[in-house]
From TrEMBL:
<dbReference type="InterPro" id="IPR045857">
    <property type="entry name" value="O16G_dom_2"/>
</dbReference>
<keyword id="KW-0326">Glycosidase</keyword>
<comment type="similarity">
    <text>Belongs to the glycosyl hydrolase 13 family.</text>
</comment>
<dbReference type="GO" id="GO:0009313">
    <property type="term" value="P:oligosaccharide catabolic process"/>
</dbReference>
<dbReference type="InterPro" id="IPR013780">
    <property type="entry name" value="Glyco_hydro_b"/>
</dbReference>
<keyword id="KW-0378">Hydrolase</keyword>
<protein>
    <submittedName>
        <fullName>Alpha-glucosidase</fullName>
    </submittedName>
</protein>
<dbReference type="GO" id="GO:0004556">
    <property type="term" value="F:alpha-amylase activity"/>
</dbReference>
<dbReference type="Pfam" id="PF00128">
    <property type="entry name" value="Alpha-amylase"/>
</dbReference>
<dbReference type="InterPro" id="IPR006047">
    <property type="entry name" value="GH13_cat_dom"/>
</dbReference>
<feature type="domain" description="Glycosyl hydrolase family 13 catalytic">
    <location>
        <begin position="13"/>
        <end position="422"/>
    </location>
</feature>
<dbReference type="InterPro" id="IPR017853">
    <property type="entry name" value="GH"/>
</dbReference>
Length: 557
């Protein structure tokens, strides 16, 4: 298997709005990030994925860009950006920018021009259509943020497409001028010395010919109906030729709706498109569960289905493409709340369990800010405490149009709202967790006195120190990066056990996903020779075939 630095790297995602506020306005900023780079150096990560810092009206917290080559006023200046980039490089940390080019903000100059008239030079930068004879939208697509995916624009008596918010009009990637403008902007950032791109919903950029009606009632149909469109690989290969191939970058495509077969094209080993993709199957609900309201009333997969899905990606891409490894990001609830156990008794233990299970797999691991501390969901009780447009729009749509009760909907939000991952980083036990001296834009999780970086960075038994060890082990052991993967005890509803093999070496990864003791089969234990080295574990001692609640341990032999 071909080796590469981005296969051996560990990436840390920063959501700038919630990472560190340096000027007391309650909003994280670039100088705040610069202040905390030493903390990330200590953790040992190699790359920072920076969620968008470009100029934006913040309808979707920066994922609605009004100027790709200017810094969001609230986050600071281009000089602040350059200082952060230089300091990161001094520390040997690379910067991966978030590239959001499926859509812009409706305040972007291109859209301001485009909507002026049907013959404006920028008209075809976006997707405009006449409404249907009966006055209905051009097709039945739903937006991912509730309502129709079309917004009527009086000025020219036409509708424009927005797969996300009304203020995020989709770019028309079939227009070569759009592609040239995007590639020019990407080259501009590469010439500044950045080290890669995370590409927002890149699987959606090529819309199906004729924009046909979708499957009625599929929540956010546009998201699934547009995925892996007719020209997406052609456009990415053009992007690779005109930008990516000219630099030594790390690239990951956020590929909503991607399948294993499609992923082999996006992340193929010949390097003609991207290095890897974020797929969504393992963070979605069970394939066998029909939900009424998309993610809101869905549940996580039962363990056997989850293990089978992750294993499918491990063996399915191995030697042909490359996996990203993640459980958390700014769109997902906190992993320890969703896949672990965030009770006082088991929060730390299960956070280490999840970290072991993910970081011992083949692929590039992504650590989402606060995941290394075992931060968990905030479970806000009041709608007024939420800020996320997806959550707020869904609240109104489901309670006002679908008959969902307030109490039911608040239960959905507490469990799976994106705001659970966006509460401010918990630095210490001072007011607002040391994130800001002002009023935070989003409330801090009330458990910050117990869960914060200051309490962990010097504690060898902390979640932080455990992540630090996992990252170091990946840097020191090729088997963790390149070893082949094999799932064991596939049917178990309690354990997640897999083996890695590389040249003549093996790792046995044993995880108990329950709050009670379980016993590992003789078939598994029989493979581990006496005296096998314990690489890492989340209990100090070892009970052999018995795994205690949320126990994780890795043997090398
Ligand atoms: O997310 C796209 C996407 O797939 C999410 O909308 C996801 O499906 C949903 O949030 C899960 O409930 C990207 C960004 O990561 C997200 O923050 C943006 O809101 C979205 O695109 C639009 O840019
Ligand atoms: Ca600030």
């Amino acid at each position: 298997m071909k080796k590469a630095w981005w296969k051996e790297a560990v990436v840390y995602q920063i959501y700038p709005r919630s990472f560190m506020d340096s000027n007391g306005d309650g909003i994280g900023d670039l100088n705040g990030i610069t202040e905390k780079l030493d903390y990330l150096k200590e953790l040992g990560i190699d790359v920072i994925w920076l969620s968008p810092v470009y100029q934006s009206p913040n309808d979707d917290n920066g994922y609605d860009i009004s100027d790709y080559q200017a810094i969001m006023t609230e986050f600071g200046t281009m000089e602040d950006y350059d200082r952060m980039l230089a300091r990161a490089h001094e520390l040997g940390i690379k910067i991966m920018m978030d590239l959001v080019v499926n859509h812009t903000s409706d305040e972007h100059a291109w859209f301001v021009e485009s909507r002026k008239s049907v013959d404006n030079p920028y008209r075809d930068f976006y997707i405009w259509r006449k409404g249907k004879e009966d006055g209905k939208e051009p097709n039945n697509w739903g937006s991912c943020f509730s309502g129709s995916a079309w917004k009527y624009d009086e000025q020219t008596d036409m509708y424009f497409l927005h797969l996300f918010s009304k203020k995020q009009p989709d770019l028309n990637w079939d227009n070569p001028k759009v592609r040239d403008h995007v590639f020019d902007m990407m080259n501009w950032w590469c010439e500044k010395g950045i080290d890669g791109f995370r590409m927002d919903v890149i699987s959606l950029i090529s819309k199906p010919e004729g924009l046909p009606d979708g499957i009625p009632g599929e929540n956010g149909y546009a998201d699934s109906g547009c995925a892996n469109g007719p020209h997406v690989h052609e456009y990415l290969q053009e992007m690779n030729r005109k930008v990516l191939s000219k630099y030594d970058l790390i690239t990951v495509g956020e590929a909503a709706g991607v399948t294993l077969e499609e992923a082999k094209k996006y992340a193929n080993a010949d390097g003609s498109e991207l290095n890897m993709v974020f797929q969504f199957e393992h963070v979605s609900g069970s394939e066998h569960e029909k939900t009424h309201y998309g993610k809101w009333d869905g549940h996580k997969m039962p363990l056997p289905e989850w293990k089978a899905n992750l294993s499918k990606w491990q063996t399915g891409l191995s030697h042909e493409a490359w996996n990203s490894l993640y459980l958390s990001n700014h769109d997902q609830p906190r992993s320890v709340s969703r896949y672990g156990n965030d009770s006082e008794e088991y929060r730390e233990r299960s956070a280490k369990l999840l970290a072991t299970c993910l970081h011992m797999m083949q692929g590039t691991p992504y650590v989402y800010q606060g995941e290394e501390l075992g931060m968990c969901n905030a479970y806000f009780d009041n709608l007024e405490d939420y800020r996320d447009i997806e959550s707020i729009n869904a609240y109104h749509e489901l309670t006002e149009q679908c008959g969902v009760s307030h109490e039911e909907m608040m239960g959905y939000l507490k469990r799976i709202s994106r705001d659970n991952a966006r509460t401010p980083m918990q630095w210490d036990d001072s007011k607002n967790a040391g994130f800001t001296t002002g009023t935070p834009w989003l409330k801090v999780n009330s458990n910050y006195p117990e869960v914060n970086a200051k309490a962990q960075v010097n504690d060898p038994d902390s979640v932080f120190s455990y992540y630090k060890k996992l990252i170091r082990l990946r840097h020191e052991n090729e088997i963790i990066v390149y070893g082949d993967y094999e799932l064991l005890e596939a049917e178990s509803e309690e354990t997640f056990i897999y083996k890695r093999t590389y040249e003549n070496e093996h790792l046995m990864v044993l995880c108990n996903f329950t709050d009670h003791e379980v016993s590992v089969t003789d078939a598994v234990m029989g493979q581990i020779p006496d005296g096998a080295e314990k690489l890492i574990a989340n209990y100090a001692d070892d009970m052999g075939q018995t795994l205690r609640p949320y126990e994780a341990k890795v043997y090398r032999y």
